[in-house]
Write a structure and sequence with these properties.
Chain lengths: 487, 1029
């Protein structure tokens, strides 16, 4: 009896005294989680964080699709008029600020920027070998993300010093496009000054990629002299592959013509539909472009979005090898091979052959894991941009012709199609050539906008409004940003 | 057990001898009255009942068998028989042995209920509780205990689900919070969760008390925000001989309602019309296809449900025990028992031992094993959703006995029989829970309790995704027709293949609560009574999981589906794990005071600390107070009709810590690809909010209890009002912050108010007719008052592909309301389209949407509230009576005013449509309800709109039970004390205007009322047997 009494009293005392308040403190390591406080203490932390900055590149499949669907090249397609309503509206130029696809794009681009900024914020915590060059990659990526933002949205919030936190919500306003461009140029110049000309790993950014992007950024601002000069650094470094179509196959990835290529693989064993596109290492855009319920050889089923128009297919000159390398004429293919497919919404009978699902090129959950890299900047693009800069900047039409004809000779396999025009005639030929060379690669809409041709080419395009897309409504509501005119 | 019985027999014998001697020694010239005292409710003999000759002090108590033998004066006429918890009864003395049945005194004011950290006399409670007795539970024989709360406990809303063993939505007094609405469940003093009720055998439950207001639940502080369900399991009684009960029932379940869809010929005709409307060719040149396949009939089956329970309870001088074993097996009505079942085995052992005179040791142990398997339900991939939308022209099986295939439906939707066939999963849960408790009586009325409660759960799960074939080109097909993998050779010669997959997971949960508290009751000057509690509680809750995945299961077969047997290469074998931990530390106190039982006051306080909260706000304080006044005890209160009247009020705060611990997390999930190889990276994934703190819920409650007409009628009415001013949820922040998870903050306000009423009528007519009717009424109104996240709302659930969000938690609205377009009939002609606000893509035959904001354009800004899934009020009516050996119970439940959103219509070009489509628009004036059919729906007629909203009000006869107890005389010699047969119909009838399977749709609070093909609650016919001995 006494014993129990004592036990009770002792245990009461023990618990009362030991139950001190730190019992309810929490340390993340209890759940084996790494905290920011313990990070950036080894060089590997920095390297991993840089990989994290690359990561959002893989989420941007929609900006390639929109670059075509918004233009005159392709139609929205899909299963029906309500299948991915966001891009259906963009095709019709009826899109508004409540567009999930644009909202995601905005968020993804800013995630890339925040991740880059997080490295900037922690830059001085540790010195290690190769750090300077590593930061070159970070600056390139930040510039790439901001460039996509200004292309899509015009003036956007600009911040570079740190990863924003909850308390920064709603504190920023849009910065003028010119300031964003100035930052992009600064980042790219910083990157160029530290990046190596070659990287041991394919897919890592090189100095040439940074120069090519900067040349493009100058061209978008019509800084033709700077642009032409910048491109000169790259001319001759890369070479056009002899067979145009081969570069879009798996075997053609990271080839001699590839200046900057966003990498994908089919090996991530990804099955989860709930975390797409962030989770998978595959190219989700590819699945969108495929023929619906396809049965036959070589290709695989997709969702029949982003279908090329008859006009685009017909626009190619006879003998242009790029016509059937860029666009799959499904009826011809059916006639030749006995394949079949189910026509989707706005079916044209044509499919994007550069980024079509190919049999055996995915893994795990087939739709989510296509291995196709996105060729973001090809040397042919660089040549055409350089040609344009030289021509429009009045620097050298002969240089422009030279660059243009390099591209055309590869396309036609002869010199009979060389261009000898000059001046504004040449300008228009270069612009047209861009679409023959680069259609289905996500450039068309932005080329039409920057060259002022969008309203004549795109049905429903309203001048003074549709040059940029609307700022997501959610952002306007939360952050109080101004909307683009007309939306 | 045998030993125990023997022991008891020995004891009874001894007692009998002693009593006999006593009787003999006092024998005079008097007469002897003998008899047996039973409990009327369950025909159990009552040992220790007091039997008194009326008007004298001459009396005795009954023995272990409820028998007594009393010498009375020869002229004595009446005995007074009484027993705690039963109505005292006067019995006329006869020469024959008396059989005295005491009525259970459920309404008796001295009834004691279990509350937090102690018990309290109902008469002295000034807070608000609802009680469900074991009798009600027995009449319902539920699979899960929550079922017994539905309509029986005023103030509690239960939205059940038909899927075997699935957890219902339980709301105690509305939806004050966003971060979870599950009430705290306390089983025998040990804190658990609503999920844990799946492992509790309802047979083991003695009572369920629902603590509704702050006065009652504040003793649980931060956990008490959503109310508390206090479950007390059965225990033995001291000095009671072993009593065995055996209950067994067998039932068959079926689905009584199906949804009218088009038959094959109608389908063909409609598809032809849709196709030609969009300028394409006829789909079916011949539409004379008969009725085709009724897929709902194919997948809905009759399924059995059975249960067996064996219990034994009793006690000796110093110990008491309750032991039970139970088995329940329920097969699913959708798809049948091969793929959908819930099998539960329970073993419960509760022991009480007086170690010494002052020290009691209690050990309660509950073991449960649950085996289950399930089919996808209430989502777009569910069996029912496929059955409703699949092509009716396809036969279930083709000529070769393979599953029929649609040539036109090539994505997501498939032959539902094939889907059932291709679904393989298995779960096995072992759960051990219980408590070890020491109660030490330090001095009279001062008791210290030291209690260790624990729950250990081990869950094993297996999932097999075989290679499947739903037709060439179907997007779910990953095999050839012979189920061999599809092997492809890429352009560079690399070979890839499709795979079957298997995953196995092990999850452990362990939680414990150690509590030590003292109860001290004292009086000052006889009239001032105090009951006090002071204590502390330390608890920890943790879980961990390991999951392994592998590819290529031998023979593509479930039999071989195991990670160990899978033959895929090393890269295809993956593993993952997770874990969580949460700790709380709390101190609590309660002081109850009453003056002569007439004026009541109570104060409760709890200090809670939680790992979930920010550094700067680790601890919170939750006080509450209540007062009551028993008017009927006042001398001026003279009413004869009113036996008892109490008014009471309470005010206090409770909390909620349903968030995760916060810190700046570096995620190593981000990856990129270099050289074709995946490289791991890192990124900041979440950031903390050091100031985050509990939701403080301020509640007040006023109510009264009244008993009238000799306590035959009782009425309890409460009005409550809850408001939360620092609602916890993840804010929606500027999108330019990127994609990390931003921490929960205290940034919202909600308000809930309502009324609970419980009305009971209890009477005995003549000798043999007992009647009980109980009506409960629950009404709560919920309002989101403020959300400081910029958007002023948070999206809840949605449906479909592409995903359409539907419900919102929005400032100025009720939580979880439906948000969409309002329709205004059908455009009959182009002139009407032109006259209407600009509605892109609309043409004659399309739905006209209302221009809500009157800006001349129909767009997203015209969306508005189109429905509210939560009922205006619910009503439960339990009626039972028994006459002689028959007993009858019927329970009716009504839910009035809730809306349902019909989200099971898939609306792809080739999916089946619903019978309403036959009334479509097909020319000016043909229909103003159903839009035209077309393959090119440029108007998006299927956008979220009130077209899909239906009134979900219903009245359900939930339970009908008729029992017959075989007269004891028939089996007296067998040693049995009761044999009762019964027949029961559950979910007997549903009266509703809703067109779907079942108007009760539950899957989480912000996901309530969205019918994606919900699993209907089956009608269950069963036969059962209760035996006692």
């Amino acid at each position: 009896m006494k014993i129990y009494k004592n036990i009770s009293l002792i245990s009461l005392l023990v618990f009362l005294t030991s139950a001190c308040t730190n019992y309810v403190d929490f340390t993340a390591v209890e759940n084996f989680e790494i905290t920011a406080e313990d990070y950036f203490k080894q060089s590997s932390n920095y390297k991993d964080a840089v990989v994290g900055v690359y990561d959002p590149l893989q989420w941007l499949y929609m900006d390639v699709l929109i670059g075509e669907i918004a233009s005159d090249n392709t139609l929205s397609g899909g299963e029906s008029a309500t299948d991915v309503i966001g891009i259906q509206q963009i095709d019709e130029m009826t899109h508004n600020a409540n567009n999930d696809d644009l909202t995601s794009l905005w968020k993804f681009l800013y995630e890339g920027i925040n991740r880059a900024n997080y490295l900037e914020q922690n830059k001085n915590k540790l010195e290690f070998e190769g750090k300077t060059a590593l930061y070159g990659e970070v600056y390139f990526l930040r510039a790439y993300y901001y460039f996509e933002l200004v292309k899509f949205f015009g003036d956007v919030p600009l911040f570079t010093d740190k990863r924003l936190t909850a308390s920064d919500s709603g504190t920023l306003q849009r910065s003028p496009k010119s300031e964003v461009y100035a930052q992009i140029e600064k980042d790219l110049l910083d990157a160029i000054s530290v990046l190596p000309t070659s990287q041991s790993q394919k897919g890592r950014i090189t100095k040439f990629a940074a120069q090519a992007l900067l040349g493009k950024v100058y061209l978008y601002q019509e800084k033709f002299t700077e642009s032409a000069t910048m491109f000169e650094n790259i001319i001759g470094v890369y070479s056009l592959v002899p067979n145009y179509e081969s570069q879009f196959l798996k075997t053609g990835e990271n080839g001699s013509e590839s200046v900057f290529e966003i990498q994908f693989t089919n090996t991530s064993n990804w099955y989860d539909w709930g975390f797409v596109p962030q989770g998978s290492e595959g190219n989700f855009g590819v699945q969108h472009n495929g023929p619906r319920a396809y049965s036959g050889s070589l290709f695989a089923s997709g969702w029949s979005f982003n279908v090329p128009t008859q006009d685009l297919y017909n626009s190619f000159e006879a003998g242009d090898s790029r016509k059937d390398a860029s666009i799959l004429d499904m009826q011809a293919w059916i006639d030749a091979t006995g394949a079949s497919y189910a026509p989707g919404f706005k079916d044209t009978g044509y499919f994007n052959k550069k980024y079509i699902p190919r049999a055996g090129e995915s893994g795990a959950q087939t739709e989510l894991n296509y291995l196709n890299n996105y060729r973001a900047i090809r040397y042919a693009d660089v040549l055409l941009m350089a040609a344009e800069a030289n021509n429009r900047g009045g620097i050298s039409d002969s240089k422009a012709q030279n660059y243009l004809n390099q591209v055309r000779r590869r396309a036609f396999g002869d010199t009979n199609h060389d261009i000898i025009a000059t001046g504004s005639t040449l300008t228009q030929i270069i612009w047209d050539e861009r679409n023959f060379e680069l259609s289905m690669e996500g450039h068309r809409f932005f080329d039409l906008v920057r060259t002022g041709k969008a309203d004549t080419k795109i049905n429903g395009f309203i001048k003074g409004k549709n040059e940029v897309f609307p700022i997501p409504q959610q952002e306007i509501d939360i952050s109080g940003l101004t909307q683009n005119p007309g939306y | 057990m045998k030993l125990k019985l023997f022991n008891d027999k020995l004891k009874s014998l001894t007692m009998f001898l002693l009593l006999s001697i006593a009787i003999v020694s006092t024998a005079q010239s008097q007469k002897t009255v003998t008899g047996t005292v039973f409990s009327a409710e369950d025909n159990q003999p009552l040992p220790g009942a007091s039997v008194l000759e009326k008007g004298t002090t001459n009396g005795t108590t009954t023995d272990f068998d409820g028998k007594f033998n009393l010498q009375v004066k020869s002229n004595a006429k009446t005995l007074v028989v009484s027993y705690i918890g039963f109505k005292t009864q006067e019995v006329a003395i006869t020469n024959a042995p008396l059989v005295i049945k005491l009525q259970n005194e459920e309404n008796v004011l001295e009834e004691v209920v279990v509350v937090g950290y102690g018990t309290q006399k109902v008469s002295k409670i000034s807070g608000s509780i609802s009680t469900v007795s074991k009798k009600s539970i027995g009449q319902l024989s539920p699979v899960r205990a929550e079922e017994a709360l539905q309509g029986q406990a005023a103030g509690v809303n239960v939205i059940s689900n038909g899927s075997p063993g699935s957890k219902p939505v339980v709301l105690i007094r509305g939806i004050p919070s966003y971060t979870g609405t599950d009430p705290l469940v306390v089983i025998d003093g040990v804190s658990q969760t609503l999920d844990d009720l799946n492992a509790l055998n309802p047979v083991d439950i003695e009572s369920i008390n629902v603590l509704k207001d702050a006065a009652m639940s504040a003793i649980y502080g931060v956990k008490g925000g959503n109310g508390v369900i206090v479950v007390t399991t059965k225990s033995g009684k001291k000095n009671l001989k072993s009593t065995f009960t055996f209950d067994s029932s067998y039932g068959t379940q079926n689905v009584t309602r199906t949804i009218p869809v088009l038959n094959a010929s109608q389908y063909a005709a409609i598809l032809n019309e849709a196709s030609t409307a969009s300028g394409a060719a006829l789909v079916f040149p011949n539409i004379d296809l008969g009725v085709g396949t009724n897929w709902q009939k194919e997948v809905l089956v009759n399924a059995p449900i059975l249960s067996h329970n064996l219990t034994v309870s009793g006690g000796g001088e110093n110990t008491s025990y309750y032991i039970s074993a139970g088995y329940l097996a329920q097969d699913g009505v959708v798809g049948g028992g091969d793929k959908s079942y819930f099998d539960r085995s329970n073993l419960t052992a509760n022991f009480n031992t007086d170690i010494t005179k002052d020290l009691t040791f209690i050990i309660n142990t509950n073991y449960a094993n649950i085996k289950n398997s399930g089919l996808s339900e209430n989502n777009i991939g569910s069996v029912l959703s496929n059955a409703l939308n699949f092509d009716p022209t396809v036969s279930p099986y083709d000529a070769n006995g393979n599953f029929g295939i649609s040539n036109t439906i090539t994505q997501e939707i498939k032959n539902p029989l094939a889907l059932i066939n291709d679904t393989y999963n298995y779960g096995n849960t072992n759960k051990l829970s219980g408590k070890l408790e020491l109660q030490y009586d330090v001095i009279k009325d001062f008791k210290i309790t030291s209690r260790f409660g624990y729950t250990y759960v081990d869950v094993y799960g297996k999932n097999f995704s075989p290679l499947v074939f739903y037709g060439i080109g179907h997007n779910s097909t990953n095999a050839h027709e012979d189920l061999s993998p599809i092997v492809t050779i890429g352009s560079d010669g690399t070979i890839t293949s499709t795979h079957s997959r298997v995953s196995e997971s092990k999850t452990n949960f362990f939680s414990y609560t150690y509590e030590m508290f003292g109860n001290y009751n004292f009086k000052i000057n006889e009239d001032h009574s105090f009951e006090t509690v002071l204590g502390l509680s330390i608890s920890k809750n943790q879980g961990e999981n390991v999951t392994a995945n592998a590819e290529d299961v031998p023979f593509n077969s479930w039999e071989y589906a195991d990670v160990s047997a899978a033959t895929g290469d090393a890269t295809s074998q993956t593993a993952s794990s997770w874990q969580f931990i949460k700790r709380n530390l709390s101190y609590f106190t309660r002081i109850n005071y009453d003056y002569k039982g007439r004026y009541l006051a109570s104060f409760t306080g709890r200090v809670d600390g939680s790992t979930s909260f920010g550094k700067n706000n680790k601890f919170g304080f939750f006080p509450s107070a209540s007062i009551g006044w028993v008017l009927s005890s006042e001398s001026f209160f003279k009413s004869k009709k009113i036996n008892y009247l109490k008014i009471r009020g309470s005010y206090g705060t409770v909390g909620n810590d349903n968030i995760n611990p916060q810190f700046s997390k570096i995620s190593t999930f981000p990856k990129y690809t270099f050289d074709g190889n995946i490289v791991s990276g890192s990124a900041l994934q979440s950031i903390p909010n050091d100031n985050v703190t509990w939701e403080n819920q301020i509640q007040y409650n006023i109510g009264f209890d009244i008993k009238m007409f000799d306590n035959k009628v009782s009425l309890t009415t409460d009005y409550f009002n809850k408001s939360v001013s620092d609602l916890l949820f993840n804010p929606t922040l500027s999108l330019y912050l990127g994609t990390p998870v931003y921490p929960a903050s205290n940034i919202g306000k909600t308000k809930s108010y309502g009324v609970d009423i419980s009305l009971n009528y209890n009477n005995t007519f003549g000798k043999d007719f007992h009647f009980n009717s109980n009506l409960s009424f629950t009404k709560s109104t919920n309002l989101v008052k403020q959300i400081n996240n910029g958007d002023k709302f948070i999206w809840g659930a949605g449906y479909g592909i592409p995903f359409t969000t539907l419900t919102r938690f929005e400032e100025g609205f009720s939580p979880g309301y439906f948000f969409g377009y309002k329709t205004d009939g059908i455009f009959q002609n182009q002139a009407e389209v032109d006259a209407h606000a600009v509605q892109n893509g609309a043409q004659a035959g399309d739905i006209r949407y209302l221009d809500v904001n009157k800006d001349g354009v129909i767009n997203d800004n015209d969306r508005t509230k189109i429905g509210d899934p939560f009922p205006e009020f619910t009503l439960g009516w339990n009626l039972s009576f028994d006459y002689k050996n028959f007993d009858f119970n019927v329970f009716t439940y009504a839910s009035i005013g809730g809306d349902i959103y019909r989200a099971y219509e898939r609306n792809l070009n080739f999916t089946n449509r619903f019978a309403g489509t036959l009334n479509r628009w097909h020319g000016d004036g043909t229909s103003n309800v159903e839009p035209r059919v077309t393959f090119i729906d440029s108007n998006n007629n299927r956008r979220a709109s009130d077209r899909y909203v239906e009134d979900g009000s219903f009245v359900k006869i939930k339970n009908i039970q008729i029992g017959y107890s075989v007269p004891v005389s028939y089996f007296k010699r067998s040693g049995l004390t009761q044999i009762r047969f019964y027949t029961q119909i559950k979910n007997a009838f549903t009266f509703t205007k809703y067109s779907g399977f079942d108007p009760e749709i539950s899957s989480g609070v912000l996901d309530t009322g969205i019918d994606r093909g919900t699993y209907p609650q089956p009608r269950i016919y069963s036969l059962g047997l209760n035996v006692k001995f």
